[in-house]
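Re-run with default settings, no changes from the original entry. Doing this only to confirm the output is reproducible before filing.
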Amino acid sequence: MAIQRSAQQHLLPQPTSLLRPSLLALAITLAGPVMAEAPGEELARFTVKAFADEEKRGFAGFDVTKLPNDEYALVWADYAYSGGDGEDHIKLQRFNGKGELVGKEVLLYTHSKEKSGYPVRPVVAADQTGNLVVAWGVETEGSSPGAYLCYSAQSELMVKTVNVGDVQTSVDVTTAEDGKSGEFCGVDVTMDKDGDFAVLWGLLDHGKRALDIRVMPFQRLGTPALADPLKPIDDGVAFYPARLAMQDDGSFMVVWSQFVEGGEPDVDYAVWGQKYSAANVPLGSGGNVRISGNSDEEGITQIKPSIASYSDNGYWVGWINLASPTYGVNDTDYGDAEVISMVTKYLPEDGSAVSEFELITYDNSVANTVASSTPRIDVDSEGNLLSAWIYDPKDDDSSVPSIADAGFHLFRTSGSKVLHFSFSELERGDFGSQDLYGAVVALSDQSMAILWSDDDKQEIEVALYEKPASSEPITGPLTQNSSGGSAGWLSGLFVVLFGLRRWWRAGIGDRS
């Protein structure tokens, strides 16, 4: 791995084989009639490169999680392109909120080119002391990672725990089941404060092109907590990806999108969830709970949920809304969707009803096809929410989106005032809207980390920001972009920060 700072930052001691400087620059403007403090300072920016000039290498997915003491852990998969030499890897690197590397790069897995396939899509979670669980798939077919979240029947799901001293322990997870094809789709992990963790995967139902969902809880040393995995949904109607989040006490929640069977013409797919106790018992008398609500618009598709837990035992959930797509959805494209938006919702522990908040909406009437990554969200100890997603209208001949707009939305506990910061177009674009290369985030109490990848799969950009101050009052209405209107043709990376713990009590974001 090579790390490079932007011109404004001091270089850390690094190997001399650093590649070209980062071209990224940041400009910040206030959106609409907003008067408030400036956004948090950009603390550092660096680039993780998967290759040297003479090598044909790229990334096959990456993830980040926060650690104690304003530190973060980044995991990634690198692989040799078809025709390239060398091995494929899963690697780990810790860094802090100032952009300084913490410890050495850790090699978690090596895939020899004597074997077919490659490792892909690592995910990571941490406990309160910094112990980690990392999971990834080893795809056995194809010469390079594809856009989709599914693996062939002979592929493996691999899991390791890594303690603060970098001691690694392999964890056995079996995805095969009698009567199932063996193909699994999507992987996620979560961990409680003491190091107990859970692993999620989906099993593909070819006939319905949908998923059954499986979750296996583990004790901190990697011992399965159950004889068989939990089955939040087992009738092949879930749409990938599914995700999960765990509370400090070991209770957790799983979220997914599934097809709505009849009786509701306005919604084709909806977001659902299931809570489990720390003893791995399903909670709620009615079984699975629908999270996303009905819509005033016809033909709404609600997909790609993401979830984060908060210390009051509540959960934040975010997802993508599409209006009137004319054909099916997959990991990348949605046909002729007229409107695309990101929606968030808070689920209190007591199960009380709350409203959805439509975070940002883009009019897509000029585009034939749109694409977006799954929104990624994280919550700090005060309940602030950070979210990022990538949107591409695909309205020209280019196969990759460029960044044209992004922003912070900052909410206050005192009311429904919103501070929106818009980044002008960055000098480097080419962002992947597929989840394989999409944006990921992590939020500590001191800083926030936003990571994304170029669509050519050759590097990961890591940007670290000081969190905006929360003491100053805000005036002005919600604005949807830098001009205060719908974004139309714009594509970009959207970064959103909520700054309140209990916005639902103030009636913020009521869409009823």
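The longest strand covers residues 230-246. The chain has a mean pLDDT of 71.
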